[in-house]
Specification:
Elements lengths: L39 E3 L5 E2 L5 E5 L3 E2 L6 E4 L10 E4 L5 E5 L7 E6 L5 E2 L9 E7 L6 E8 L7 E7 L2 E7 L4 E7 L2 E9 L21 E10 L4 E7 L1
Parallel strand pairs: 2-10, 11-17
Antiparallel strand pairs: 1-3, 3-7, 4-9, 5-8, 6-7, 8-10, 11-14, 12-13, 12-15, 15-16
Length: 236
């Protein structure tokens, strides 16, 4: 019952997570007319690899018989590099190449024809050589954020958001957050109160009578410029 003496009540709305995976069907391919070779794309943009992330190879069709030893990361003289991690995800459609990237350096990625076949029976016709270089540290900006009243949150996680998608997140252990290299751009900021400390937002459940974890949007955007010290004070 609402009257003049009733104090305002803050209500939170959310969409409950769907635990059922959608049924996916493999793409229909005209084998007669299609070129019988594995199709893929990489995370390399304009011939440059991000210093902050692994190199990823994404396939249109899931792979089988994958052999990571058939993929080599080398220098420009084709000398294989050591301590390179190569793995495939559970969908068998994404290969990750992890390396301690050196800035402004040229690399080659060699993919042998027998590294895998896909579930359609296709494979590479010859060795693929992907040449690229890494970005410079000057292509990034440093970030420093000074928070006040961060103690409102028991387990705060800072989220950087672009196009309504979380692109990076960091657990906050002090009122000052800083990172030396960050991709330039405009970001929205959110603070997640990560109750179970798993580093991500968890939805609620109506049947389990469980509330979702709260995410508070910070009512301002930050713009990170490359080769610049970006410092901002934020009051929560």
């Amino acid at each position: 019952q609402i009257s003049a003496n009733v104090k305002p009540v803050e209500l939170f709305a959310y969409i409950e997570g769907d635990n059922q995976k959608p049924i996916t069907r493999p793409p229909v391919v005209n084998k007669k007319n299609a070129e019988k070779t594995i199709k893929y794309s990489t995370s390399i943009s304009s011939g440059e690899q991000d210093l902050l992330t692994p190199l990823s190879i994404n396939f249109q069709v899931p792979l089988k018989n994958f052999d990571s030893t058939k993929i080599k990361l080398t220098d420009t003289l084709f000398k294989p590099l050591q301590l390179v991690g190569i793995s495939i995800d559970t969908t068998f459609k994404k290969i990750t190449v992890k390396n301690n990237w050196v800035e402004d350096t040229y690399y080659k990625l060699l993919i042998s024809p027998d590294f895998a076949t896909d579930t359609l029976g296709d494979k590479l016709n010859k060795t693929d050589t992907i040449s690229f270089k890494t970005k410079k540290t000057a292509d990034y900006g440093s970030v420093k954020l000074n928070f006040t009243h961060l103690d409102k949150f028991a387990h705060p996680v800072l989220q950087f958001v672009q196009n309504n998608a979380v692109v990076d997140s960091f657990k906050l252990t002090s009122p000052t957050f800083s990172v030396k290299l960050f991709n330039p751009g405009e970001y929205e900021l959110r603070i997640l109160n990560d109750e179970n400390e798993n580093g991500k937002w968890d939805p609620g459940s109506f049947h389990l009578k469980k509330q979702p974890e709260k995410v508070i949007a910070i009512p301002r955007k930050i713009s990170i410029r490359k080769d610049w010290d970006n410092e901002t004070d934020i009051q929560l």
